[in-house]
Structures are given as C-alpha cells and as structure tokens.
Amino acid sequence: MNLQAFLPYRLAVLSEAVSRCVSQVYGERFQLTRDEWRVLAALAESDAMKSTAAALYTTLDKMQVSRACTRLEGRGLIRRDEDPEDRRNKILRLTPEGRDLLDQVVPLVQAREADLLRALDFQERLALEQVLDKLLARARSISQSG
Amino acid sequence: MNLQAFLPYRLAVLSEAVSRCVSQVYGERFQLTRDEWRVLAALAESDAMKSTAAALYTTLDKMQVSRACTRLEGRGLIRRDEDPEDRRNKILRLTPEGRDLLDQVVPLVQAREADLLRALDFQERLALEQVLDKLLARARSISQSG
DNA sequence: TATTGTTATACTCTATAACTATA
DNA sequence: TATAGTTATAGAGTATAACAATA
Fold first, then answer.
1. Is the full-model pTM beyond 0.90?
2. Which listed CATH number (3.30.565.10, 1.10.10.10, 1.10.150.20, 1.10.3720.10) goes with A3-141?
3. Would an 8 Å CB–CB cutoff place A137 in contact with chain B?
4. B22 contacts in A (CB within 8 Å)?
5. Are B16 and B106 in contact (CB under 8 A)?
6. Alpha-carbon torsion A16, A20, A21, A22, what sign?
7. Residues lower than pLDDT 70 in chain A
C-alpha cells in the first residue's frame, strides 16, 4: 500500500488544496460559504431558478440549498419568490445587490482558476477535462452498484 | 460563470464521489474513518512511525492523528510506544490485529482503485499523474502567496 | 399519496488554542 | 524557550428524518 500514489488520496489532497485556494477569495473577501458560492454561481447563469434545479445543478441537496438561500436572502443577495404555477416551488433570483457581488467575485475567482491552470499546457488541460469526466462517471457507477 | 466547467468545482465533485466510493469499503465494512484509514495505510508501509511523521505523510494535522490513533489503539489495531530517544514522541506500530485488518482491507480498496482506473487508458493515466502533481504544487503555492 | 421546501436533531469535521510533559 | 502530543471548545458541515403546505 502506497498512500502517496493512491488515486483517491491524491484527489482528496488536491481538491482540498484547490478548494482552499479558491475559497480564500469568495470566503475571506466576500464571506460566502462554499454552498452559498455554488448557489450564487448557479444564479449567475440563469436569472431565475427553482430550488430543485439549483440543487441538481450544484450537486447540493435540498437542505443545503435551503440553508444557503436563507443566509443569502438574509443578506439581501437573492430573493425567493413563489411559483404561481406550483406554489410548492420557490423561485430563486439574484437581487441587484447579489448581481453586484457576483460581478465582483466572479472575475477574482476565475483569475484564481486561470492561475491554477497556468500550471498546465494545452494538451494537459484537454487531457484533464476528459479524465475528470470519465473518472466521475465511473465513480458514480461503482458507488451505485455497491 | 459556468459552474459545471469550473475546475475547483469539478475536482470537488469528483473527489467526493471517489471518496464515497472508496470509503464504502473501509468505512462500511471495517468501520474506519478516513483519518483512521490514512494512518493505517501509512503504517502499512513502515512498521514504526512517529506521530509527526504520520501527520506529514497523511497530510493530517497532529490532532487528527492523535484522535485517529486513540480510536485505533482502543480497537487494538495499533500501539503507541514511548520513544526512548525523546520521550515527547510517540511511536506508532501496527498490532497483529491491525496487520490482519490491513491485509483484508488493502486488497479491497486497491481493487476499487483499479476499478476506477479502468475508466482510463494508459495514456490518460500517465497524463493524470502529471496533472495532479502540477496542480497540487500550483495550488499550494497560490494559497501561500495569498 | 407524492413532492417541495423547512425545520429538528444528532453526528462528524475542522480550527484554534490551551495544556502537559519533555527537551 | 520550543516541541510532541493531548484535550477542550466552538463552529461548520453532513445525514436522516419529521413536518407543513401544496399538488
């Protein structure tokens, strides 16, 4: 057994290091948790989004989304509107303040990502894309089958 | 902002999926936490190890190692001996029971890893190795510099 | 009866730092 | 004074499930 070469360990260490590196930006400067950041990032792409869609999109579960939204709403960064078509749903929307915050945080976070990717050449970036997709699909299929 | 394409997000999702997939083995069947598993895996390689060395090797901090060891010792899987050369140190060793457990769990965990890696061809595995190392080094250097 | 979202609860992790014993 | 390891504590995150409102 060689832990240093063990893929799950290496992925965990890398993911933690990368996450730390990015959460320095959205966490320390903008006081967002990872879940709040994910929900905001989801809303950055589509103006309005049901909670269930946000959960799917961010791979969070409904509680995590609910709690993140409570905090984001409390800070005035999003609204949660009723869905007239099905009043069980909540429709999440950025407020102007939320949009402002995103306009500040997104470039900084993307700069961090770019900085990370600068460690790789074009070929390596392409390879990484493929490999991440394939491993994720495999990991999910293994977990399901026990 | 496209969360799905955002590298830190993708790494976090993958790492979580892979970790879940592996901890099904050491967690459900052998009742080990991730930290306990890491400490045991470290001891699988060298018969005796100081706590500080174990912390470095597993990228855990001294508390995490201390607590994992308390539980492992409680289950009779490791011993913590005094270091005659410097009595502040604790020397960690597998007991025969710990060795037995490792002999059972390691092949299963490695089979999971092999199963994961079956998603990739030889070139992709090589590329993955390189890319993980480079990204980790970069992430650490970025975090340090703020 | 099923679904959406909220709340409750218990559990685990994490981070900081105080503490002890040695050096 | 510094280091190794333990313990304490508070805060954050996670998982399960109960619950209210709606369909």
1. yes
2. 1.10.10.10
3. yes
4. 8
5. no
6. positive
7. 146
